[in-house]
Amino acid sequence: MKIIDKIKSHLKKTGEYDEKIIMEMMENALGHKGMYYWYYDIVNDISIQSKASQRDFNIPEVVEKYSEKYETIIPVHKDSMKDYTNQLKQVLEGKEECNCEIKLKDDKKDRWLNINYKVICDMAGKPVKAYGLAVDITDNKIIEMRYHNAMTKRIVSEKEIKISEKIIYSTIASEYDYVAYVNGINEEYTIFINENNSADNISAVSGKQYEQAKIYLINKYVIEEERERLINQTKLSYIYKQLEDSRELFIFFSSVIKGEIRRKKVRFSYMNREKKQLIVSEIDVSDIYIEEQKKNEILKNALLNAESANKAKLNFLSNMSHDLRTPMNAIVGMTELSMENIDNKEKVLEYL
Question: What pTM value is reported for the model?
Fold first, then answer.
């Protein structure tokens, strides 16, 4: 049975069949290489996987007691299992949208996925089902790691960063807005800035007051409604706290560049945990963000359409019940009168 038919069959049994939501979900994922989708029935704790997930990860099509079995069924690397577990916890708590990046267990090569859940709750706010979409981001992660490792290997001291300029400049020009090194002990920093998407226009800026420089740049480039949040989330104390249990921290914000609002993603990770040395990089994710907003809008509209159809069905059944009840009462009444006069043929014929 095809995955879409399997999901339909399951939802029909539970009385929660929403055709439009399923179709929009599948249509957004079909035909895209490196994309995997699945349906999660939270109430009954059942996961239904796509054929791509079954084929590439050897996951059963239907997984019962998913919240208990996922650690043994889903091929998540041990370094990412905590992040995946936290995401599933957010799904079960009813968070509307959950996103995380995970590394997979693979003997042949390292692979990473970006996993996004869209959670749907009932009228009482209780989560009842979720739709998952995973995108293979291995190529981007390999590029990120290459230059993270290059920077790490080339550090001679806390005050001097010696990196292969040709490699780092070419990478920054093609992938990043900037790559920076921050010494959390004395707040010294060096930023390699991509000014015109060219390796010949990468400039290096160094300073000794990270917090002060950060606040200046946020106030200059970040949209006003996100400034306070970003200032708090980029404090060194906050970053170190978040990195206690994770290998990396991602922060998203909107920036105004030449009069245009662009969506940005900043990554923080340790270069040297003991010495409080950080690597910071920023990339533009506007195109991805816009695409995700479109998908979310499709899901939202599909949900509204499904709820409207369900309401119409309930109204129809209610009206039918009323219309049927009146003649049925008359039939029952006449039948009872006939039974009471069963020996009187004329009366029986009159009542019936």
Answer: 0.41
Compute CA 156 distance to the chain's CA centroid, rounded to the nearest angstrom: 39
Sign of CA dihedral 24, 27, 30, 32: negative
Tens-place pLDDT, residues 225-281: 999 999 999 999 999 999 998 888 999 998 887 788 888 889 999 988 888 999 888
Structure tokens at 202: 């990468």
Question: Token pair of 338, please?
Answer: 């006939």
Contact 250, 141 (CB under 8 A): no
Helices (H) and strands (E) in the chain, counts: 12, 14
Instruction: For residue 16, give the nearest of 315, 302, 318, 307 by alpha carbon.
Output: 307
Of residues 27, 21, 26, the one with CA closest to residue 129: 21
Q: Which residues 6+ apart lie within 8 Å of 289 measured at CB?
A: 252, 263
Paired with 203 in beta bridges are 193
CB 221 within 8 A of CB 261: no
For residues 234 and 253, what is the distance between their CA atoms, to the nearest angstrom? 11
Rounded to 5°, angle at Cα 310 from 121 and 47:
45
Q: Closest by alpha carbon to 155, among 185, 182, 194, 176? A: 182
**How much of the chain is in helix, strand and coil states, percent to nearest 5?**
50, 30, 25
